[in-house]
Amino acid sequence: DSGVTQTPKHLITATGQRVTLRCSPRSGDLSVYWYQQSLDQGLQFLIHYYNGEERAKGNILERFSAQQFPDLHSELNLSSLELGDSALYFCASSVQGLAGETQYFGPGTRLLVL
Amino acid sequence: AQSVTQLDSQVPVFEEAPVELRCNYSSSVSVYLFWYVQYPNQGLQLLLKYLSGSTLVKGINGFEAEFNKSQTSFHLRKPSVHISDTAEYFCAVSLSGNTPLVFGKGTRLSVIA
User: Fold this and answer.
1) How far is Cα A87 from Cα A110, in angstroms, rounded to an integer?
2) Pick from B43, B46, B90: which is nearest to A102 by CB?
3) Between the CA atoms of A64, A68, A69 and A71, what dihedral angle is there, to the nearest 10 degrees?
4) Rounded Cα distance, B85 and B102, in Å
5) Which of B36, B41, B39, B94 is nearest to B63 (CA)?
6) Phi, then psi, of B56 in degrees rounded to 5
7) Which residues of B fall within a CB distance of 8 Å from A88?
8) pLDDT at A4
């Protein structure tokens, strides 16, 4: 158990819908990262937050947005969902968000868009 | 931009045999290197990482990796595998001044009894 929690574990929805994925980092960690794992693209970095502020953006679509709240939990919002958005979405956390720090991964949210 | 190539998508190996999972990276600047393991239906867990210093890095569960700057490689090894090592293994890199991890496509290790 990494100490990072993600809800829900599974999500099934239809095209065009909007969903919210939630992540609680390990106690004491200030940084949260979101990654997407799909069969064709592999594991891809989406976005990084540190203490409520966006630090870095990766291959995140404009239909996707995220935020980190004052209690440090984070939410990833996916809207206008397409079939291709079906994937495993991971959240990871680290202490300070510094290069070289270990990122601890949650168990993921499996999203299926029908 | 940096990239990571894991040369084998699948590696079958008999129990108690040695294994090497290959990873090459491309970057023109200093990098940090990581190996993560993903067991079925679970998140990723760090096996080991190289930041600086000794090029031979020892990790959890008996795994080790060697950083080779001239070959731009960071191969993962274990002298004797167990059934419980069956999993997907990911090599990742991040620039020393940046934190997002760039992952390889993964290598599925299957240990056969």
Assistant:
1) 6
2) B46
3) 140
4) 23
5) B36
6) -100, 120
7) none
8) 97
